Structure formats: structure tokens, C-alpha cells
Amino acid sequence: MAYRIHFTVEDLARTRVWPRSLPLMELGAAVRTLQEPGHGVRFSAWRRHALAGLRPDSAMVLELIRTRRWAPDFLTRAEAGSPEEVLERVRATPRARIRDDLAQVAADGPLPSWARHLADDRDLFRQLCDSLDHTYRVLLSPHWQRITSNATAEGGMKTRQALTGGLEHLLTVANPRCMRWNAPVLDVTLASGLEGDLHLEGRGLLLVPSYFAPRWSAVCTACQPQPVLTYPANSPSDAASFIACPPPAHDRGTGTSALAALLGHTRAAVLTSIGEHPGCTTNELARLSGIAPPTASRHATTLRDAGLVRTARHRNTVLHTLTALGAGLLDHPRGD
């Protein structure tokens, strides 16, 4: 099952990488990741803080943006601009657009009973917009500046890949788990399971990095001047934006006792800190682990030599992330 995007020579020439994140698409990805099990190591600290900070009225957004389901386009559309500008535009969505978008969602599955009145009840729609604003402030706002900074680096990296290996190579490696290039068609497996065909007809495609969608790509066909396809950001600092979310002190020892017996308390704390704050620098790792920077560097090197940690240089800093082996060890500290 795949969604097929058809390219012509003109489409390949006009396809480009957008070095910015799109606020509503990124917020939609964050809402889905919040509700989706898994990704415990990478998003655990962010998820804890998000769930603690969300008010009950955020349920309106969470009920309309579900994992592996279509969401109303007016809530997740691929629009450029600052988050504040884009959120304000949502409030101005015409009633006909609300009605049409909800009808498309209803064709995929039942709507919440209250959502059926959104197009005609402006007070209810205003409550939904307030819920969307609040959800953005909790899930994305604390990290948005770093996300946009990383998106610039990500865009540069993908552009270099296209220049050195060709655009077809970029389409092959952008999201190999869910995208497959079979010239002249790009097969994309969507979380919703949607099948269909998109003929670009000379418009090309806009590739946009997503930081809160670690696996799935999303497509927006109605965007102008060209459709949008997101892909998981893979730059060395792709998750550094979550460093601002230190875990509560009482959770620091959770799941680390078995690791401590294997690695020692300090090294287990270092590994856990990297897992909860991927992309952290050595100084940040030291602060998170409560040790001196030289000690943090020494333990990170040992973990890297053991195949548990990967380090990469970004500008003048070194960034630490887990390898698959390290993530597996943290996710299953007792081997079960």
C-alpha cells in the first residue's frame, strides 16, 4: 500500500528542499507523537513535560489530530510563516473550508460529536483555536527557535546531498523506511494507509524536514505553488531542541538501576541523559548528568567506543546521540 507521486523531468528540476519547519505540520506531528506509543528514549522527557503542562481543553485538538488518521487540513496545513501568524490564519478559516475538511475526515472515520458543529458555531470554533494555541505553546513554543535553526542546517545538508548525488539519490535516502524511488515514481507509505496518485504536472515537490515525525512522512497536495512532502530530520542535532526539558529529579533513577549494575552509576546516568536529550553538547551533558565537562566527555567517549553512543561535530560543538544499540539498551534495561 503506497501513495504514488509521479515526476516528470520538469518536476525533478523544480523539486527543492525547504530549510524551515512549517508550524502547523510540525504541530500536527508533535500531537501525533505525543499520543503514539514508542520513541520512548528520544521523546520521553519532552512527553512528560508536555503531558504535565497541557490543560484539559487541549483534548479538542488531540481528538481531531489522531495517530494514523487524517486530520482536518485547516489544522495541519503546510503554511509558511511564524507560528503566531499561521495560528492567527487558522482563526480566519472560512466556514465552507471547515465543513469540507471535516467531511474528508469523516469519510476516514467518525468525528467527535462536538466537531460536527464547528462550521456553524463560531464560539465552539474559537474554543478549538484557543486549544490549538495552548497546545502549540506547550508542545512546540519552548523549542521552536532551535527547531528552525536546525532546519536551516538540515536543509543545507540535504541540498549538498542533492548536489553531490543527484536529486534522485536524495529522494532515495530522505526516508528509506517509508519512501522508495522507482523512477519516475516516488512510493510513499503514509501512516494513514492512504493509497492514491499525485501527478506533479511540472510543479515539482517541496521537501520539508520534520522533527516530531521520526518515521512517517506527510503529504499536503493543496499547497501552492507546489505540493509538500515532509521527511524525518536526520541532521546530527535533529533532536537537540528537547534539551530544554530536563526530566523531573525523582525520575532520574527510573530504569537506570540495572544499567548502573552493568555500566556504573555515572556512566548509566550519562547514557540516560543522552537518550532523553539527543543532540546534547558535552557541556549540556555534564549539566544534565551533574558531573564536570571533562568527566562527561570521557564517559561519552567510552560509550561511543562500546557502540552505544554516536558523536558528531556541528560547527564548533560535539553533539551526542544514541546508536540503535544504545537506544535498545535503555528501552529494555533488563533485556526483556
Helix-strand sequence: EHEHHHHHHHHHEEEEEEHHEHHEEH
By secondary-structure content and strand pairing, the structural class works out as alpha/beta
Side by side, the strands of the main sheet go: 3-4-1-5
Mean pLDDT: 84
Major sheet attributes: 4 strands, mixed
Low-confidence stretches: 235-255
- Mass-distribution shape: globular
Q: Estimate percent helicity.
A: 40-55%
Residues in β-strands, percent: 5-15%
Number of helices: 15
Radius of gyration, whole Å: 21 Å
Topology summary:
Layout: E1 3-6, H1 9-14, E2 16-17, H2 23-35, H3 40-53, H4 59-64, H5 73-76, H6 83-91, H7 95-108, H8 122-139, H9 144-165, H10 167-173, E3 179-182, E4 185-188, E5 196-199, E6 206-210, E7 219-220, E8 228-232, H11 257-263, H12 265-276, E9 280-281, H13 282-289, H14 293-305, E10 309-314, E11 317-322, H15 324-331
Parallel strand pairs: 1-5, 2-6, 6-8
Antiparallel strand pairs: 1-4, 3-4, 7-8, 9-11, 10-11
Helix pairs in contact: 6-8, 9-10, 11-12, 12-13, 12-14, 13-14
Which descriptors would you attach to this protein?
globular; 48% helix; four-stranded mixed beta sheet; single chain; 336 residues; alpha/beta
Please explain how this structure is put together.
- By secondary structure, the protein is of the alpha/beta class.
- The protein is 48% helix and 13% strand.
- It is built from 15 helices and 11 strands.
- The protein has helices at 9-14, 23-35, 40-53, 59-64, 73-76, 83-91, 95-108, 122-139, 144-165, 167-173, 257-263, 265-276, 282-289, 293-305, 324-331, and strands at residues 3-6, 16-17, 179-182, 185-188, 196-199, 206-210, 219-220, 228-232, 280-281, 309-314, 317-322.
- The strands form 3 sheets. It has a 4-stranded mixed beta sheet.
- A hairpin with a 2-residue loop joins β3 and β4 (185-188).
- α6 packs antiparallel against α8 (122-139).
- The protein is globular, with a radius of gyration of 21 Å.
- Residues 235-255 have low confidence and may be disordered.
